[in-house]
Fold this sequence. Notes:
Blueprint: H1 2-5, E1 9-12, H2 18-27, E2 34-38, H3 42-51, E3 54-57, H4 67-74, E4 78-81
Amino acid sequence: WCLSGRVLFDIVGTGILEAELKVVSSGLGIDACINFMGSMEMERVEDILSEADIFVNPTFFPQTWGIANLEAMAAGVAVVAFSVGGCAEYLIDG
């Protein structure tokens, strides 16, 4: 499915909802579109960001700076995130 193979999701990192997300994506039949990549070295993250079209940070918990957003922006990738905490200082709606 994956929107005719045009949309692929790389999820970098781990967390308490990872197992649940895998079950949900499988149940929805979209698990072929999602690559759960786990934790990795920053150099590898930079490589992934260099090939990304968009970076999505779904957290709505206030972060001091939201460093992952800044790293994506530094790589020239558009960021979609909640404007909370320190992120509100640099994210622009639109």
